[in-house]
Write a structure and sequence with these properties.
Layout: E1 3-9, E2 18-27, E3 37-46, E4 53-57, E5 68-70, E6 73-75, H1 83-87, E7 91-95, H2 117-131, E8 139-144, H3 146-157, E9 164-168, E10 176-178, H4 179-187, H5 191-206, H6 208-223, H7 229-250, H8 266-277, H9 284-287, H10 291-301, E11 303-304, H11 323-327, H12 332-343, E12 348-353, E13 372-376, H13 390-404, H14 415-426
Parallel strand pairs: 4-7, 4-8, 8-9, 9-12, 10-11, 12-13
Antiparallel strand pairs: 1-2, 2-3, 3-7, 5-6
Helix pairs in contact: 2-3, 3-12, 5-7, 6-7, 6-8
């Protein structure tokens, strides 16, 4: 298989670990192993040959570039163990998803024909085969959101590659415009908060002309981005459409009082949109990295529907999906994965947030004593075990400890490590326009 561009990263704050960043060669099409190849990025945080190994599956690109300051310490690259690796002092192998980030398709592959969930699972299988002879203690796979879904996909194809799986806030979506999500948003939280979010959506669209010019200044001043008036108008509409999804996904009930009044100043509303959706992602160069994701959701992974009835007469660009649109999507592979999780998964823990819209598409895990399904009260898309009731947290950890025959690392009780984990979870957000 081969390792390329190997470098040891010394500028990290992972006591007791050595961190290696490298590339491995993968077939573009595993059914044609002698055909074109691409290089896939892997980051190994190595602790000991006697430690368990966590396979951290990433649904997008690895976010290990630039500098990040946490607790006054500048870390470059920003390498943090995901929760299971930290909780059990495990080795961690984090894998960038095929055709994302620094693992792009090679020149000559002109489209995403081989960007499928089966090909992704086979990538991970080859990496497990590469490392298992060296790391012989129990293996656990984990991931967050699309990364957690990637872990479950891999496990469904290769159930013996790992001994257990912990997947966070991972959804199974079976169509373009899956109505379960819109129904969830129509009943989430309090009626007062829902109405406040809807009032802000309406205000953005009704005041779009006033906001437009000020958004242009805001983008220029804060992000050095220059967009045409029409480009801004399109993005304003997309942000308004997905505002409820983004608000509940990343902020939730605790932020209801932070929503500006519909009559607030344009600058206050623009700052709020930026906080919720990230205006920096409006730049073409920021949109390009999501091209593989857009392909995946349209062909296999599906998209959520959002409520639109209250925006009637205010939308200029959005239109309902056509039958031609829907014909692009084939849910069969994703349904097969969901069926496997619901009937055959074992030693699997699924964790969701009560307020996270993605919980509307939660996987059903097989009804077995060695599986567990947790919903964190009031939790968002950042839900994890540190937010659970102490008894629930301890019971879940003890269960996972039994699966991988490894004691819990009590150092995780220290605030700094918990905060590092939460900070890592907040670092990457998918902009709302990607789900439309």
């Amino acid at each position: 298989m081969g390792v390329f561009e190997l470098q040891e990263i010394n500028d990290t704050v992972l006591p007791g670990y050595r961190v290696f960043d490298f590339m491995v060669n993968q077939p573009v099409d595993h059914d044609n192993p002698d055909g074109p190849t691409f290089r896939q990025r892997v980051v190994l945080s190595y602790r000991s040959k006697d430690a368990p190994t966590v396979l951290a599956t990433n649904g997008y690109s690895l976010q290990y570039s630039g500098t990040t300051t946490i607790f006054g310490v500048v870390r470059y690259p920003y390498v943090v163990l995901l929760e299971p690796a930290a909780r059990f002092a495990a080795n961690q192998i984090e894998v960038e998803h095929r055709f994302y980030g620094s693992s792009p398709a090679p020149r000559g592959v002109l489209d995403f024909e081989h960007l499928t969930i089966k090909q992704s699972a086979r990538d991970l299988h080859r990496i497990v085969q590469m490392f298992k002879p060296l790391l012989t203690k129990p293996w656990l796979s984990t991931g967050v959101s699309k990364g957690g879904k990637t872990a479950l996909i891999h496990r469904s194809y290769y159930p013996d590659d790992v001994d257990a799986t912990v997947a966070y806030v991972s959804a199974a979506t079976f169509e373009l415009g899956d109505q379960r999500y819109a129904d969830f948003l129509d009943r989430i939280g309090s009626e007062v908060c829902r109405n406040t979010v809807e009032a802000m959506q309406i205000a953005i669209l009704e005041r779009r002309d006033t906001l437009n010019a000020r958004v242009a200044d805001y983008l220029s001043d804060n992000y050095n981005i220059s967009l045409s008036s029409e480009e801004i108008d399109v993005q304003l509409e997309a942000s308004a459409l997905t505002l409820s999804f983004q608000f509940w996904q990343y902020f939730g009930r605790d932020a209801c009082n932070d929503i500006p009044a519909p009559t607030a100043s344009p600058w206050r509303i623009i700052e709020f949109i930026d906080k919720i959706d990230g205006l920096s992602t409006w730049a073409p160069e920021s949109r390009a990295p999501f091209a593989p994701y857009r392909h995946q959701v349209r062909t296999e992974l599906g998209t959520p529907a959002v409520p639109v009835d209250h925006l009637a007469g205010l939308l200029k660009y959005w239109a309902p999906l056509t039958e031609e649109d829907r014909a692009l999507h084939d849910p069969s592979a994703m349904r097969a994965v969901a069926d496997w999780v619901a009937t055959q998964a074992d030693q699997t823990l699924l964790i969701y947030g009560e307020d996270d819209p993605w919980t509307a598409g939660a996987f059903t895990v097989a009804d077995r004593p060695d599986n567990d399904f947790l919903v964190i009260p009031g939790g968002t898309h950042s839900a994890d075990l540190t937010q659970a009731e102490k008894d629930t947290e301890n019971a879940a950890l003890q269960r996972v400890a039994g699966w991988i025959s490894t004691p819990i690392d009590t150092a995780m009780t220290q605030k700094g490590r918990k905060e590092d984990w939460k900070q890592q979870r907040r670092r990457f957000r998918v902009p709302g326009w990607t789900i439309l």
